[in-house]
Design brief:
Blueprint (H helix, E strand, L loop, with lengths): L1 E8 L8 H16 L1 E6 L5 E10 L2 H4 L15 E9 L2 H13 L5 H27 L9 E8 L2 E7 L5 H10 L10 H9 L12 H9 L13 H14 L6 H8 L9 H19 L17 H27 L4 E3 L18 E3 L1
Antiparallel strand pairs: 1-4, 1-5, 2-3, 3-4, 5-6, 7-8
Helix pairs in contact: 3-4, 4-6, 5-11, 7-8, 7-11, 8-11, 9-10, 10-11
Length: 355
């Protein structure tokens, strides 16, 4: 069975930072040659997935939803995925359709079985796109996912989106470049190996934090001040906070150790601000205005919220990227300031032990 998936992408925006632009450029170069992955679906069937970039053409453009079809919102290239698999599950679906819908032709039975299977595979494909950020931070910004079987439209749906590129740009603007040296394939393997991503539930601090991080990827952007902030800080706490002690105190002591010395005071100030904003919102102590007035000019309260959101998402990503690069399943901290040798990213020297 061969199914093609066309994923439309948002273009690089003028406010994207150097790190995001470089990631996008490097990934574009890699996609021109194509990426081949061997994955397993939720029933443990082997899937061959080929990913490459493709110039926009009239065939795919005609399947975009209105009014997006005629907008300039899309990048010049599509992301094209070819999925090939032989799965007993598909045969079981066809058998069930034959038994329950006797009037269907053989072609109709196959088409509907592939449609049902495709529904389940889309979430696996979105997991692969999610994983790509740990190799090419902020590069992929999917908009729509359109699936085809034998050139016939199967399904058109909104892709999961996030503001992770904005968070990476926020760190860039403050002198911290969250770059990665992981290969695309290694990033996918790392993400899919964590419990809770495909099977089971999270069982380590890193897998727990990674599953919290997935909550930042949604089909429709959330227009509220709280959701992403809560999920990100929960993911950070899952990695760094020991029970029974002050979260803010522990994070102010631990998070700066992941970054270069010259940035540690900024990190501490942003930790304080993020928790202050979250506390005010959760406990009803923050003055806000109606969500129906979200199109009004920004004010100082917006700037405070914006910084808290971007910082919490960015630091959550930075910690997970450190785990991916070092192979850590959790971080252990010494009480002395002497760093332990470990594989670390380029933005600073953590005093952590990868375990």
């Amino acid at each position: 069975m061969l199914v093609n998936y066309c994923i439309t992408l948002a273009p690089t925006f003028i406010y994207d930072s150097k790190t995001v632009r470089e990631s996008t450029f490097l990934l574009t170069q890699k996609l021109r040659a194509g990426i081949k992955l061997k994955l397993r679906d939720y029933d443990d069937n082997v899937i061959g997935l080929e990913i490459f970039s493709k110039k926009r053409d009239i065939f795919f453009d005609n399947h975009l939803t209105e009014p997006s079809r005629h907008s300039n919102f899309y990048a010049d290239d599509y992301l094209l995925l070819k999925l090939n698999t032989k799965t007993k599950y598909l045969a079981d679906l066809e058998k069930g359709l034959r038994e329950n819908f006797s009037g269907m032709t053989k072609g109709e039975i196959r088409y509907n079985a592939v449609y049902i299977y495709t529904e389940e595979i889309i979430s696996l494909i979105e997991t692969v796109i999610f994983a790509s950020h740990f190799a090419y931070p902020g590069a992929l910004k999917p908009v729509q996912i359109i699936s085809f079987y034998r050139s016939k439209l199967l399904k058109r749906s909104e892709a999961r989106k996030s503001e992770i590129a904005d968070a990476i740009s926020f760190f860039d603007d403050n002198g911290i470049s969250l770059q990665s040296s992981l290969d695309f394939e290694d990033a996918v393997i790392w993400v899919l190996s964590k419990n809770g991503m495909v099977h089971g539930v999270s069982d380590t601090p890193v897998s727990k934090s990674l599953n919290y991080f997935t909550r930042l990827f949604v089909h429709s952007f959330r227009d509220d001040e709280l959701s992403d902030l809560v999920w990100s800080l929960a993911g950070v706490e899952a990695l760094l906070v020991d029970g029974g002690r002050s979260s803010v105190g522990q994070l102010n002591a631990k998070i700066p150790t992941f970054f270069a010395e010259g940035k540690q005071n900024w990190i501490k100030a942003e930790v304080e601000n993020a928790y202050k904003v979250r506390s005010k919102l959760v406990h009803g102590n923050k003055q806000i205005r109606s969500s129906y007035r979200s199109n009004e000019d920004n004010d100082s309260a917006f700037d405070e919220n914006y910084s808290a959101h971007r910082f919490s998402a960015g630091v959550h990503f930075a910690l997970l990227l450190t785990a991916a690069l070092s192979g850590a399943t959790e971080f252990k901290f010494r009480t002395t300031p002497e760093p332990l040798p470990t594989s670390v990213p380029s933005w600073g020297p953590p005093v952590v032990e990868a375990k």
